[in-house]
């Protein structure tokens, strides 16, 4: 008899990351930081070269202390991982059984589906309104038996968010035994007065976990580094299911330096604020629909017409060395997600889309 994996594993569609860029092209497909990373983080990484034969601190204590100081939270309630992706998977491994119901929003991050499928759970999507999470729809979809509700706030790939009052209403209306996971990967880009990353909600409610990442504003996507903040009993569970050395030594060092470099974070946010607004203005001026974004990317919609669809635009841009993200896997076949790049990249995108529309 041929060895077979657990039922449902072969039904999983592996996550497909944003396309790599050929040499000389601009990679605008993965929402990476256009400014790179903090030089302090790079120096800390290089300084690890003579210590690569040594196991890292299994609890990433130095990094947790640095995060706690920067965020004003208890480091003992932080778990670090190989990107927030790993932390989302640890949550699924710890709390999901086969047949459990998991809820995400209609255009939620694809990793939530992977988390559910890996555990044999059922993933159900709640409709969004104008590409924005709808709390009433989430509650109706979750019902009384959802084990986990995943909410990316802001959301990838739409770039939209819902205010803290709505997230709190969601938590207060869900059953007490439903875990609400707030994925705040893009929190540092948002300065709207009605937005909260979810950290305070972890303190206020029993069943809330907030995940964060170093991949976006800190520019450490290549090191795979993230963290979760939760109640002590949830953190204890996640420590029990993670690997003993799940964060490598250079990542700990670079992350510790990055979280303390507030100047780099400010410069990254200022760059993003300027160019998101510019891209939205320029692309809308071409007659294309753009969903308002608080993240480091824009969601551009194309007409369902021969030669003018998103796939046509993607190919047109790629021929000009501009690599973007098609969104068929998200159920958005006529949209492209375009990351904010350097000034010359952003101008090149606007010029190329102008040529595409004018054909």
Describe this structure in words.
There is one protein chain. With 359 residues, the chain is α/β, with parallel strands linked by helices. It folds into 2 domains: 20-36 and 263-358, Aspartate Aminotransferase, domain 1 (Alpha-Beta Complex); 39-261, Type I PLP-dependent aspartate aminotransferase-like (Major domain) (Aspartate Aminotransferase, domain 2, 3-Layer(aba) Sandwich), CATH 3.40.640.10. 38% of the residues lie in helices and 16% in strands. The longest helix is centred in the last third of the chain and has 24 residues, at 262-285. The radius of gyration is 20 Å and the shape is globular. Its cofactor is pyridoxal 5'-phosphate. InterPro entries: Aminotransferase_I/II_large, HisP_aminotrans, HistidinolP_aminotransfase, PyrdxlP-dep_Trfase, PyrdxlP-dep_Trfase_major, PyrdxlP-dep_Trfase_small. It comes from Marinicauda salina. It catalyses: L-histidinol phosphate + 2-oxoglutarate = 3-(imidazol-4-yl)-2-oxopropyl phosphate + L-glutamate.
Number of domains: 2
Task: Please tell me how large the radius of gyration is.
Answer: 20 Å
CATH superfamily of the largest domain: Type I PLP-dependent aspartate aminotransferase-like (Major domain)
Strand content: 15-25%
Number of helices: 12
Through-space gap between termini: 58 Å
CATH class of the largest domain: Alpha Beta
**CATH fold call of the largest domain:** Aspartate Aminotransferase, domain 2
Specify the CATH architecture of the largest domain.
3-Layer(aba) Sandwich
Portion of residues within helices: 25-40%
Largest sheet: 7 strands, mixed
What is the approximate shape? globular
Q: Please give the order of strands in the largest beta sheet.
A: 2-8-7-6-5-3-4
Query: What is the strand tally?
Result: 13
Indicate the structural class.
alpha/beta
Give start-end ranges of low-pLDDT stretches: none
* Series of H and E elements: EHHEHEHEHEHEHEEHHHEEHEEEH
């Amino acid at each position: 008899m041929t060895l077979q994996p657990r039922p449902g594993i072969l039904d999983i569609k592996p996550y497909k990351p944003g396309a790599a860029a050929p040499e000389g092209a601009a990679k605008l497909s993965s929402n990476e930081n256009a400014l790179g990373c903090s030089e302090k983080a790079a120096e800390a990484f290089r300084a690890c070269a003579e210590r690569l034969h040594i196991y890292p601190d299994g609890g990433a204590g130095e990094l947790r202390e640095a995060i706690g100081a920067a965020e004003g939270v208890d480091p003992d309630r932080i778990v670090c991982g190989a990107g927030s992706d790993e932390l989302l998977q640890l949550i699924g491994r710890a709390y999901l059984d086969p047949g459990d119901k998991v809820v995400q929003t209609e255009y939620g991050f694809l990793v939530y589906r992977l988390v559910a499928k890996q555990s044999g759970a059922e993933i159900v999507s709640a409709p969004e309104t104008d590409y924005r999470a709808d709390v009433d729809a989430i509650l109706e979809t979750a019902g009384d038996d959802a084990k986990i509700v995943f909410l990316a706030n802001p959301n990838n790939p739409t770039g939209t968010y819902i205010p803290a009052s709505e997230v709190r209403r969601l938590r207060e209306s869900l059953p007490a035994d439903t875990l609400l996971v707030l994925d705040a990967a893009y929190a540092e880009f948002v300065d709207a007065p009605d937005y909260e990353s979810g950290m305070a909600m972890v303190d206020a409610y029993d069943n809330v976990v907030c995940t964060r990442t170093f991949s976006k504003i800190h520019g450490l996507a290549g090191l795979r580094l993230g963290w979760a903040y939760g109640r002590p009993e949830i953190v204890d569970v996640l420590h029990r299911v993670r690997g003993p050395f799940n964060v490598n030594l250079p990542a700990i060092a670079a992350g510790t330096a990055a979280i303390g470099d507030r100047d780099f974070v400010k410069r990254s946010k200022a760059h993003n604020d300027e160019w998101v607004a510019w891209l939205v203005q320029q692309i809308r001026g071409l007659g294309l629909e753009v969903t308002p974004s608080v993240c480091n990317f824009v969601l551009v919609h194309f007409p369902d017409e021969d030669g003018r669809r998103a796939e046509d635009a993607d190919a047109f841009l790629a021929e000009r060395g501009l690599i973007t993200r098609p969104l068929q896997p998200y159920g958005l076949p006529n949209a492209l997600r375009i990351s904010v790049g350097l000034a010359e990249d952003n101008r090149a995108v606007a010029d190329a889309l102008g040529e595409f529309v004018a054909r």
